[in-house]
């Protein structure tokens, strides 16, 4: 019975944290529940070299968004230095940002460049972005100052 209570307590905590993350701003690509990166572990890209789904039992809140981790070690690394692991452009598509838009970043379409994680929308978009990574990063960095605080829908008008 104690194990079941512990499990329910963990679920309640995760739900409470996710609910409090609803206020995450438009500069961060999080779900309607505040879950960032579709639940993928941001540290795993750097340590494991590939996307890894995080556990709903190992989470932390950062900038009002909920991040999940595959291990307590990854969570501790993130909490010690979140900026080292957060994806560029709030987790929005890097190619989209280069064009002045905000599209969902797919955690399975990624690349680390100069110790920065970049996500893209799809396989096709990833391939296009990889044709000129440095150029698209320069364009996205320049655009981000103007689009960071805008909702994705505002940019498509």
Q: Averaged pLDDT, please? A: 86
Termini separation (Å)?
Answer: 55 Å
Count up the domains.
2
Strand order of the largest sheet: 1-2
Task: Give the quaternary arrangement of the chains.
Answer: single chain
Order of helices and strands: HHEEHHEEHH
Tell me the number of helical segments per DSSP (H or I, 4 or more residues long). Answer: 6
Helix content: 25-40%
Low-confidence stretches: 1-24
**What structural class is derived from the secondary structure elements?**
alpha+beta
Report the major sheet.
Answer: 2 strands, antiparallel
Number of strands: 4
Identify the overall geometry.
globular
Tell me the Rg in angstroms. Answer: 16 Å
Organism: Ruegeria aquimaris
Keywords: Signal
Protein name: YHS domain protein
Signal peptide: 1-23
Structural commentary:
The radius of gyration is 16 Å and the shape is globular. The N and C termini lie far apart (55 Å). The longest helix has 19 residues, at 2-20. The protein has helices at residues 2-20, 44-47, 72-80, 94-98, 123-129, 133-147; strands spanning 55-62, 65-69, 106-113, 116-120. Helices cover 38% and strands 17% of the residues. The protein is of the alpha+beta class and 157 residues long. The protein has 2 domains: 1-84, no CATH class; 87-157, no CATH class. Strand 1 and strand 2 form a beta hairpin. Keywords: Signal. This is YHS domain protein. It comes from Ruegeria aquimaris.
